[in-house]
Amino acid sequence: MAPFHLHADPSFNYEILRALSMARYGGAEVSEVLQVAGDIKPGDFESYYNAFNDLALHVKAQADLLDSSKNPISARDAYFRAATYFRNADFFLHGHPNDPRLMTLWSQQTVAFDKAIALLPVPGERLVIKADGFDVNAIFYRTETPGTTGNPKPTIIVGSGFDGAQEEVYHAFGIAALERGYNVITYEGPGQPLPRREQEAGFIHDWEKVVTPVVDYLVQQPSVDAKRIALIGWSMGGYLSVRAAAFEPRIACTAAVDGVYDVFAAFRSMLAPNLRSLYDTGDAAGFKEAAMSSLDKPETPTPFRWAITQGLWSFNVHNPAELMEKVKAMTLGGGVADRVQCPVWVGEAVKDEFFRGQPPLVKEALGDRATLVTLTEDDGASAHCHVGALSVANRHIFDWMGKVFERK
């Protein structure tokens, strides 16, 4: 089955599909995204910014004209879409950490998103949860208004990975969980959008330091069934979530969407042969110089340029050699997988652009504790993170999760 390409540039093709996939759960409109996709030039990060920034400003202006007291659903929908488009405008700008747009765009997306969640039937609540040496930014979405009398509900903790925001995973998984009667809390830790911007906190490998404070918060909430707290990790979050579950026994089950066994292996595989040779032979200075110089060459593939610049920014390091050393610690080997006690849903997308081949390694390491689900082109869910087919992935994830909860 030959895939239909939305753009000649593979990175832009994927990110446009990712934006389109938000439409299923109210985060985008298909025609709005397709309308601006044609204005994006291959390899041109500024054209990507311009296309989505213009769209975000247009949709926000429409939202601002609406009387939210009379038309709350219309206003909410428009603000959700504007927030998505502001996030997309920011996506390829991290190669210049001092670019003021990184702060202004994030402020704009946050304001738009907060206006939207204030108009939900049960408004979302932003939280700052104290952790060891940093703060976890979170948003809690309850199935019932606080203070009402009701039974405690299963609660799903949802986090993203290398480049995603908690606002995005609300659309990707949060709405699907709420539709099934579950509370949802989304969160961001070091390396992710708000902690990186506000605290200059780069990624850490020991992700239980992020998730455990969230669990501590949840078990104190009357609306939360403390025996039925689940964790979902998206993209590189497939590693982060399983790592956290290995050290946080109160997690009832975990979904790795998709399975990531070794982040370093994925980074190494994306290196061009000359860079891989320099790195493998221990020529750190030569690797650093060659990798950094390649970022300024127009012939360098967009996926590599973006991955390195995003990595430098999100891990808060200065060069690719430091980045590679940082990601070495991100593995389920060394006994980490052996510590996992809860059931784990492990997703696999057969055409994954970033972590192909890793989900079976997670399944092998976890054995009977893991359920491996492979989605293909026939499912429409073969791309990384199953973008474009989130309702397909959510059917598998939440049907499995429901069975786990029944046993609690």
Automatic annotation (TrEMBL):
<protein>
    <submittedName>
        <fullName>Alpha/Beta hydrolase protein</fullName>
    </submittedName>
</protein>
<dbReference type="InterPro" id="IPR041127">
    <property type="entry name" value="PET_hydrolase/cutinase-like"/>
</dbReference>
<dbReference type="InterPro" id="IPR050261">
    <property type="entry name" value="FrsA_esterase"/>
</dbReference>
<feature type="domain" description="PET hydrolase/cutinase-like">
    <location>
        <begin position="127"/>
        <end position="275"/>
    </location>
</feature>
<dbReference type="InterPro" id="IPR029058">
    <property type="entry name" value="AB_hydrolase_fold"/>
</dbReference>
<keyword id="KW-0378">Hydrolase</keyword>
<dbReference type="GO" id="GO:0016787">
    <property type="term" value="F:hydrolase activity"/>
</dbReference>
<dbReference type="Pfam" id="PF12740">
    <property type="entry name" value="PETase"/>
</dbReference>
